[in-house]
Amino acid sequence: MCLLRKSMLPQSKGNLFQRIKALCAEQKSKGKKLIELTIGEPVIPAFIESRQAAAEAIMSDNPAVHGYQDNGEAGVPGFSQRFIQCHVATDLAPLIKAGSLATLPLPGIKPMFGVVINSLGAWLPDARTRMVATLTDPGYPTPAVQCGLAKNIIHRHLPTNPDNGFLFSVDDLVKMGLMEGDMILLNFPVNPTGVIMIRKWLRPILSFCQEMGIRVVNDAAYAIMTDRSVATTLTDTAIEFPELNWIEMFSASKAGNHCGWRVGAAIGSPEFIADMKCIKGDDDSGFNAPLAAGVLHLFEKHPERIAEVRGMYASRLDVLIRVMTAAGMRLAVQPEAGFFAIFHPPKRAFGVDVKDAEHFNSLMIENTDPGLVGVPFRGWIRYTVAPVDVVAEEDGIAKAINSAHVSY
Q1: pLDDT category, 21, cuts 50, 70, 90?
Q2: How far apart are CA 73 and CA 235, in angstroms?
Q3: How far is CA 288 from CA 110, 274, 276, 284, in A?
């Protein structure tokens, strides 16, 4: 045995989603059938329109299509502005031309969390420690994980719970002690609650951040799956605050079933985008241009396909919530976008006391056939309708949750 060849890190059981995937794989290896309302990943292929356009781009003889894109988009000229324009109401062209906004193509959003955190420059020799507050309790954990990996970063969870409608306030930011050069890293529409941003709530937040010099980032992966007459993007409201330092990141993963394509774009204040470029330029070689061409073709030429996806998930959520609440489950908040619903775990199920959300999830897997699987998010249990046709599986879901005889 070599004593020098050893791991430098503590042994990990994997992140939350990897553990859920492993749990499902283990159960299926034993012959257990499952209804997996777990990972927010569509299981249908990208629309044929995207695939055909991407194939055409792959067959191009233009060297720019096949080269490194880095922080540019030579293979798909104008991609970022055009892609983001599909998500927002504001006419971006005059603002970008005037230099008040800048854009940046992305190889998906997830790899960018570390980039935007490190763009605060807390690792520089003369920099003070920075605070980054994230929507991760409950929420998508990657931003919090990346804060833990970054140098001289203090991480805080923004306070969200049923009492405040899973929306923090300016008073909360004041109490946290956020200062100039710190950052709030958001995820609207929110995974796992489906809560959206509205201008009435967002404007005071942005006004405070502008006054204090606090940077604002939004992961807008689900933005296109909202009712635009009600919800706002960060972009559409941030332009009202000319001194605000901000970035919003959009993704093709969910609406067009392009999860593995890793294509997206960011927009924001030129100074923040420039800082982001500095870090990102040393981290990756840009997105895949032919796949970006396929994405852009779908979003620009076939918006009706995006509307189909949005309508499909809304219908599935309606069915899921109706079935679960009829069986006694308590919804933590009404989702307004995306494909998630979050519930309070019951106090009792299957005649036994429930310790927490993870215990309830285990009970549902072990005691139902097929086993109903969700994702425990701290004090709540989340179910997603992305990978399962909930309308077709309604009877199985109803049978499973009714058999639990839940109570609070």
Answers
A1: confident
A2: 21
A3: 16, 21, 19, 11
Beta strands in 68-165 (DSSP E): 102-106, 130-134, 153-157
What are the tens digits of pLDDT across the range 176-225? 999 999 999 999 999 999 999 999 999 999 999 999 999 999 999 999 88
Report whether 35 contacts 373 (CB < 8 A).
yes
Q: How far is CA 294 from the centre of its chain?
A: 22
What's the pLDDT score for residue 24? 80
Per DSSP, helices labelled H in 46-169 are 48-58, 63-66, 79-85, 92-98, 112-118, 142-149
Is residue 63 exposed (0-12), middle (13-18) or buried (19+ Cβ within 10 Å)?
Answer: exposed
Asked if 236 and 267 touch (Cβ cutoff 8 Å), the reply is: no
pLDDT (tens digit per residue) in 34-51: 898 988 888 789 999 999
For residue 207, give the nearest of 249, 177, 173 by alpha carbon: 173
**Are 67 and 75 in contact, with CB atoms under 8 Å apart?**
yes
Spatial CB neighbours of 291, under 8 Å, sequence gap ≥ 6:
54, 258, 261, 262, 263
What distance in Å separates the CA atoms of residue 152 and residue 69, rounded to the nearest whole number?
31
Long-range (24+ apart) CB contacts under 8 A made by 140-146 are 140/187, 140/191, 140/192, 140/219, 141/15, 141/16, 142/15, 142/110, 142/113, 143/113, 143/117, 143/185, 143/187, 143/219, 145/15, 146/113, 146/114, 146/117
CATH 3.40.50.300 fits 48-301, yes or no: no
* Integer CA distances (angstroms), 67 to 62, 80, 103, in order: 9, 17, 20
* Angle, helices 303-326/394-403, rounded to nearest 10 degrees: 30
CB 288 within 8 A of CB 304: no
Cα-flanking dihedrals φ and ψ of residue 84, to 5°? -65, -35
- Per-residue pLDDT, 13: 66
Tokens of 261: 């394509």
The CA R_g of the chain, rounded to the nearest whole Å, is 22
CA distance 75 to 66: 7
Q: Span 16-45+304-403: which CATH code?
A: 3.90.1150.10
User: Residue 321 above 80 pLDDT?
Assistant: yes
Each domain of the chain, given as residue ranges in start order, spans 16-45+304-403, 48-301
Tell me which H or E stretch contains 269.
Answer: none
Does the structure show a pLDDT above 60 at 286? yes
**CB 191 within 8 Å of CB 159:** no
